[in-house]
Every structure is written in structure tokens, then in C-alpha cells.
Design brief:
By secondary structure, this protein is mainly beta. It has one helix at residues 19-31; strands spanning 2-4, 35-39, 42-46, 49-50, 55-59, 63-67, 78-79, 85-86, 97-102, 105-111, 114-116, 123-124, 138-139, 145-150, 153-158, 161-163, 170-173, 176-181, 184-186, 197-200, 203-208, 211-214, 219-223, 228-235, 238-241, 248-254, 258-270, 282-288, 294-304, 311-317, 337-347, 354-357, 365-371, 374-375, 378-379, 387-388, 404-407.
């Protein structure tokens, strides 16, 4: 059954806060055992809306659902699902949430409409680079998360456009059986922290046929303090990371094991800027900061364009202090990386290295395979100078060259 938000009092003037009307439609659909909440063509401003079991939020063509930037309209995220334990700091941000769900099942966001975060209203260009307009913009306003979904089972996002997120765009934490298909993420190319799809401790995540343009990481995978057989598939998508991002970031903040990630048939247009580690971003990165090891990561049929600024790729094991605060029990506990397969990967820029950085003999990177890969149009044959396996020798960071294998057919 369909539940139009107009029936519950929503007004398409782009000014009136329609959160109460939209939430009533969601609640009515959930109470009936499920249904579609319809956002028709028009501009609808809203504060926080919490989706529930068996509810599909459907944005028709021409619909624009606008996130309020008024702190009074945005609520803390409801840890535990029922709102009795609101916690706005679970992921280190106190900006509340626009759309989300907590401990729900069978939740869908669909349609050809647009979800607009008004990030263009919070990022300010003060021309500190004297007209080049390349450095990150300043942030001088309240910035809610566009979406936050915690412990949602059977979650689908398809076809919608997510535009100008003020903070993280589509953040999932502990979600299972997730399918993201055919969406566009169009964020400011100089706005801070507007990551596209950050997923923490995912299990069964598929991203297909998407276009993602961000300043910060397009897709990033992390873990909390439990081991995760992530079973992540990223396929047929284009990632355009601009100022300080990776097309795909596997890892960092790894408190538990992260395994089984495959990126296939994708284009990565850029990866630029620098990180707090000082090594710079890359077309894609596999990084372990924390005790949780990363295992079995494959990039296959991936094209990395020549806009990469620092590295063609980066695989790194840190000292466990880069992203773990001093108060964390995981601070100072390095992990490891094992099993990286690069098959039919082409890097257009032969001048950027593939960097492999370990952290001592026990916390390093093992079992790296290049198969039919090229850089600058030249087949990587194992005698190339693309590989940098030792950086900052005073920190005893190394990866044995014997761990890198090349197989061409």
C-alpha cells in the first residue's frame, strides 16, 4: 500500500518542515505491516526522519527531499532502535541525522528523485589559494549526517540521487544484506568529510552501477571490535575522488578482522591529497590502523585514471595510533594485511608508485599478486620501478619484496 506524504500534511514549498508529516506516513506504513511512503514531485524540506521495518521511502521523479540545517529540526541518532538511548557520538560526530534507521529490517530507499543535503550552504570558499579554487573549503555551519543506518538487515538503496551532503552521505554501521544499485552521489568537490559510502562492519554489501563524486573517500570500509567476514562486492561503478580521497578505501580504524572484499569492473577517476599518515591518498588504499587484520582483497578489471596525485595504490600497516585515540584500548596495537590480488588493473599514470608499507616483521603485508596489470600502458612484469616497499626506514617499516608476485598470461 502507498502512503503519500501529502495525505499527512507535507507541503512542497521547500520551506516548511515536513518531518512530522513524513514520520507519520512512515509510522502508518510500519503499523500496517509495511508499505511505500511516496514523496511526489516537488521540494520538501524536512528534519530527521526514522525509517522502520518493511517501509520503502520512494521518491518519484522530480521529488527533492531537502535536509534541514536548523539544529532544532535534527535529532540525535537513536541507538538501539527505539530512541530511548539517543547517542550522537557513536561515530565521532555530533551533528544528528537526516534520514536513518536503527535495528530495523527490510528498509528501502528508491526512486528517481533527489535527496539534497544542502552541503553547498555550509562549505565556504574564502579564496585562500588566490583564485586557484583548489584547496578545501571552510565549514561554518551546522552539518547533519545525510544518512545513518545502524544494524539494519535487508537494506536497499536504488536509483536515487544523493546531492550535496553536508557530512557523510550514506553511512552504514553493522548492516547486513545491503544492496546499493544505480545511485548517484554528487557532492561538493572541495567540501570536507563528505564521504560517499562509509560502511562500518558490513556483512553482505553489494554496490553496483553507481557514480560517486566526493571530496573525501568515495567508498570506505572499516570494522568495530569484532571480526567481520565482510563479503563486499563493488561492481560496475565509477568513483571520482577529488581533493583528499581514495576511490576505494579498504580499512583504517580496523578494530576487528576485515575479510573478503572484491572490487570489479570499476573506474576510479582520481585519488588526491594527503592523509594524517603523510603518505597521501591513492586511486585505492588498503590500510590497517588497529589490531584487526585485513585479508583477501581483490581488485579486478579496474581502471585508474591519471588524475591520481600521490600514489597509484597504497597498502599500509600503521603503528595503530593514526586513527585510534589515546583513550582507545586498541591504540598502539598494529595489525597486518594478507592476500591482495590485483588482476587486470590498469593505471594510466606510470609516474605514481604502488606503495607497500609494513610496520615491522610481525605487522606487515604478505601475499601480494599482480596479474596482467599495466601502468602507463606497459605490462608490469616484476622488474619495474613501480613498487616502493620501504618508506621511512627510521621507523622500521618494510614489506619483503618476495611477498610481491607477478603473473602474466
Amino acid at each position: 500500500m502507498d502512503y503519500s506524504i501529502l495525505r499527512y500534511g507535507a507541503v512542497a514549498d521547500g520551506v516548511t518542515n515536513c518531518a512530522a508529516a513524513i514520520q507519520q506516513a512512515v509510522d502508518a506504513a510500519a503499523a500496517a505491516g509495511g508499505g511505500r511512503v511516496i514523496v511526489p514531485a516537488g521540494r520538501f524540506l524536512s528534519g530527521s526522519v526514522l525509517l522502520k521495518d518493511n517501509v520503502e521511502l520512494h521518491l518519484e521523479s522530480g521529488a527533492v527531499l531537502i535536509s534541514s540545517l536548523n539544529p532544532a529540526d535534527i535529532t540525535p541518532f537513536p541507538q538501539g532502535g527505539d530512541g530511548t538511548d539517543p547517542d550522537d557520538t557513536a561515530d565521532g560526530w555530533e551533528g544528528g541525522f537526516f534520514l536513518g534507521a536503527s535495528h530495523a529490517k527490510n528498509v528501502t530507499i528508491s526512486g528517481m528523485g533527489t535527496i539534497y543535503g544542502q552541503g553547498d550552504k555550509v562549505f565556504l570558499d574564502k579564496d585562500v589559494d588566490n583564485g586557484f579554487h583548489e584547496c578545501p573549503k571552510f565549514c561554518e555551519a551546522f552539518r547533519p549526517r545525510m544518512m545513518l543506518f545502524e544494524a539494519v538487515e535487508n537494506f536497499t538503496v536504488r536509483d536515487v540521487t544523493l546531492k550535496d551532503a553536508a557530512f557523510w552521505t550514506l553511512h552504514m554501521a553493522g548492516c547486513q544484506n545491503v544492496r546499493i544499485d544505480g545511485i548517484k552521489i554528487l557532492n561538493d568537490d572541495r567540501g570536507a568529510n563528505n564521504d560517499g559510502i562509509p560502511a562500518t562492519s558490513p556483512h553482505g554489501l553489494t554496490v553496483k552501477n553507481c557514480f560517486i563524486r566526493t571530496t573525501d573517500d568515495c567508498i570506505s570500509l572499516k570494522t568495530e571490535n569484532k571480526d567481520i567476514d565482510a563479503d563486499v562486492a563493488i561492481e560496475g561503478s565509477t568513483m571520482y575522488g577529488v581533493a583528499s580521497s581514495d576511490g576505494v578505501m579498504v580499512g583504517y580504524e580496523c578494530k576487528g578482522r576485515l575479510t573478503n572484499v572484491k572490487v570489479k569492473d570499476c573506474d576510479i577517476i582520481g585519488g588526491r591529497g594527503t592523509t594524517i599518515l603523510g603518505y597521501g591518498h591513492a586511486g585505492f588504499t588498503i590500510g590497517c590502523d588497529g589490531p584487526g587484520p585485513i585479508e583477501n582483497v581483490t581488485f579486478e578489471n579496474v581502471r585508474v585514471e591519471n588524475k591520481v596525485f600521490e600514489n597509484n595504490m597504497l597498502a599500509i600497516v600503521t603503528d595503530g595510533k593514526a586513527y585510534m585515540p589515546n583513550t582507545s584500548p586498541f591504540h598502539g596495537k598494529p595489525g597486518s594485511i594478507k592476500g591482495i590480488t590485483l588482476k587486470n588493473v590498469s593505471w594510466e599514470n606510470a609516474g605514481m608508485p604502488m606503495r607497500f608499507v609494513g610496520h615491522g616483521a610481525d605487522n606487515t603485508i604478505k601475499d601480494i599478486l599482480f596479474e596482467n596489470c599495466t601502468a602507463g600502458g606497459n605490462l608490469i612484469d616484476g622488474t619495474d620501478t613501480y613498487f616502493m616497499t620501504k618508506i621511512s626506514p627510521n621507523l622500521n617499516e618494510f614489506v619483503s619484496p618476495s611477498e610481491i608476485r607477478v603473473r602474466n598470461r
